[in-house]
Amino acid sequence: MSSRLEAEHLYKVFGRRPDEAVERLRGGAGREELRADGTTAAVIDASFRVDPGQIFVVMGLSGSGKSTLLRMLNGLLEPTAGRVLFDGQDLTALSDRELREVRAKKISMVFQHFALFPHRSVLDNAAYGLAVQGVPRAERERRAAEALRLCGLAGWEKSWPDELSGGMQQRVGLARALATDADLLLMDESFSALDPLIRRDMQDQLLTLQQTLKKTIVFITHDLNEAMRLGDRIAVMRDGRIVQTGTAEDILIRPENDYVASFIQDVDRSRVLTASAVMDPHVRGDEADCRCETATPDTPFTALCALSARLTHPVAVLDGARLVGVVPRQRLVGFLGDQQGEPTPCDHPRDEGKVTARA
Q1: CA Rg, the chain, in Å?
Q2: CA–CA gap between residue 258 and residue 266 (Å, rounded)
Q3: Domains of the chain: residue spans and CATH
Q4: Which stretches of the chain score pLDDT less than 70?
Q5: What is the per-residue pLDDT for 19?
Q6: What is the pLDDT at residue 349?
């Protein structure tokens, strides 16, 4: 599958002699060394690809470079070095007019702050991107109304932004991005200004929409649990560099350095891990009883715990009719990380011995 979006060795340097600074970075100079000379390296040698229909999350603390990286993806900031490819087209080689055309029709952005026009109705706010494109009024209102319906705002079309809650205003911002039917959505800390319950509701809304629309999304966040919940793949940034890219399970189970390991230590693993991540794949056909309740590779961790509590032997994991692994109870306990020494939902005294499959 060809990628929808690809970043190739992106650098963004602010300050004096940025090209010279890039060469120094390539030669091994550090961010602090450049800062001492009055130059700020916001993004350093960032490369990744995003496949069609994928939610790609860029996660990092404040100052890690994630928002600067996002703005290079649609040309709001010009890279000091490197390329951005969108459907194979080099966006960094486009003229200003061509780039505006791409942003108007193919790439939409949802900001952290709602950026709604207070003097326009909800419907007109949702239709604004289509108005910029020159879409006739009847067509843009039809498409905006459908986008509002998808975002749970049917019946609010004639309301004003100040009549809506914060969560509802953010839904209008999302509807405005969806109405243009753009191929790529860029979301910059889009839910960070919301209260926790509303924020989770917006995450649910995005995941529900994604099941239907299959948009390609780059989502920026500093919240690790949000990244783990939303991301098909996740890039972790630190000091301008991407230090690890992978699935949520990859990052939880195989952190590439001490920084990532410390970053993920407080994550609720039971919300992320599945049977495929925790099973022992080195298993023979006589090491699990497949006649009883079984799991699939996608079975959530919490469901595995409940299943293990009902069985006297390791849980068999089947891909169709094929046995692909087993999950012993103590393996569940180990992945859960019982750091306080308290009993886990899976921790009980049954024997963990092997069970022979019967014909």
Answers
A1: 24
A2: 14
A3: 49-267 (3.40.50.300), 271-336 (3.10.580.10)
A4: 1, 283-291, 336-359
A5: 94
A6: 36
